[in-house]
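Notebook entry, structure prediction.
Reason for the run: the old model in the group folder had no record of what sequence produced it. Starting over properly, with the input documented here first.
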Amino acid sequence: MSFVTNPQIDPKTLGKVGVLMGGRSAEREISLLSGQGVLAALQSRGVDAHAFDPALRSVAELAAAGFDRVFIALHGRYGEDGTMQGLLEQLGIPYTGSGVLASALAMDKPATKRLWSTHGLPTPRFAMLTADCTEREFDAVAADLGLPLIVKPAREGSSIGLTKVTEASQMRAAYEKAAALDNDVIAEAFIDGAELTCPIVGEGRDAVALPVIRIVAPDANYDYQNKYFTDVTQYLCPANLGDALEQRVRSLAVEAFRVLGCRGWARADVMLTADGQPYLLEMNTSPGMTGHSLVPMSARAAGISYEDFVLQVVAAATLDLHPNEHWKPE
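New structure, fully documented this time:
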C-alpha cells in the first residue's frame, strides 16, 4: 500500500463500509471517539459508511450487515488482539490493519519483546510477575531491573493499569493493580529519556514510517488522562531530532513492524535516551484516531489530511487468506 498526499480513490469502489467501534475492552470510551471520527471522515468523502458496536450487536448482525469491508476502530481486547480479526476472517469480510497473528503478537507485550529481542531490536529488559511472587522475589525483580521500573498488564493499552514503581515496597500494590486487568503482568526496566511515537503504513518491503512525534507530558506523566482528556501535553512534530536520528527511529519502527508481520498501519512507541539510543516499547496495531491522537498528527506533517488517511487505510482492507482462496461449498 502506497500512501500519497492526494489519493485517487473512488469511494464507490469501497462498497458498504462498517466502522467497528466501542467494544468490550477497557478502552471502549476512546474507541467510540476514534470510531466517530473515522465514520465522519468516510461519510464526508462519500463513502457508504455505518457504525457497528460489537458490544451492543451480535455476530449474526455483523454477518448480516452486508459490509464489503470494515475499518477496525476498536482498541485493546476483543478488537486489537486478533479475536475480531479471526472472526472477520471466518466471515470473509476484509478489514483494516494487521492480521490475526500479528495482531495477537503485538497486543501481547512479552511476546512482542521476545520476538524483537530475537531479531536484535532494542527493547527494555523485563520480567513476568505472578500472584505467587513472594516479597523476596518482588525485591529481586526490582534489584535486577533497577528502580524506577514500570509494572503493567501484559495485554492492555493507553497506559491502563500502569504504575511507575520507585520503591521495591510498591511492587505488590503495582502488581495487584495490573492483575485486576490481566492474568499476566510485566515488570519493565524504566528508560529515562524522550518519549517518541512513529506511525508506520504499508506492508512488507513497502512499509514506510511517517514523521516521528515527540511527546512532552507534564512531569513526564503521559497517562490515560494526559493522553486523551487534557491539553497540557505538548506534541512536537517535527520532533527536532536531527535528520540522522529521525531516520534511525523511523527505520527501527519499520523493522519492528515487519518483524511482527504487521500490515496496513500501526504506531510504534519508542523511548530515546539522552545519548540517542532508541528503545522499542510496544506496537499499536489499531491506533487512536481521536482529536488528541498521534497518527493523524503525524500524517498531517506528511501532508496527508485526516480524511485522506482514513480513506487510504480502509481502501487497503484485506484478509490473511485472499478472498479468492476461501473455501466454497460444492
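Summary: The longest helix spans residues 243-260.
The old model has been moved to the deprecated folder.
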